[in-house]
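ok here's the first one, seq then struct tokens
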Amino acid sequence: MSLERVNPARLSPATGFSHAVVATGSRLVFLAGQTALDGDGKVVGTTLPEQFRTALTNLLAALAAAGGTPADLARVTVYATDVGDYRERARELGSIWRELAGRDYPAMAVIGAVRLWDAEALVELDGFAVLE
């Protein structure tokens, strides 16, 4: 399996994401949206960074259970209830990402959502990975 991250020089600098990811492999893992739910199904954390950490940890736990690692992520979509807050905290969220998932960034998008499934949830992450 290989993922080639493509960031053309003529596009804006790719900071915390890749513009394109070329995936070669034989297994696709589709990851359901993960929020800041704990093992009892309760949303934990009241700030975006707290919830982002838990949601990303949950996403990576699902990926690991399927046999993957953060480096296998080809695409992640972030749904945020406050995109302005997400932008303001981008450095902090990027630091959390690097701590938990490293620097092999997938193709990413951040999408504003009026609300998520659980009213207390501020952020949700889903995606897919390519494995051998």
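and now the second one, same deal
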Amino acid sequence: MTVRNEDRATVTEDPAAEGPDGALEVWIDQELCTGDGICVQYAPEVFELDIDGLAYVKSADDELLQEPGATTPVPLPLLADVRDSAKECPGDCIHVRRVSDKVEVYGPDAG
């Protein structure tokens, strides 16, 4: 939902709303990952458990990204699933942030 304030600027309730700078990326802090696999259940296109039992993000080409801090874009059709993964993660290790300014919009450091 979008509303207008007195100075006519647009105010949006969803911090990840679409817009020119609305591209999002997601990463997992494996040091906090509990290996429950909830993220994989919500968004298997984005997350995968590796042989070490920890979750990782995947590239658009379905490649497992195992480098610490590796990020992958959040496809807009999967935004709700990725958001729910971050909210339900027992390890609080999933971070979703805007690409433009690196501000976390979902996850343990979201403001």
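notes on #2: The chain is about 15% helix and 25% strand. The CA atoms of residues 5 and 11 lie 7 Å apart.
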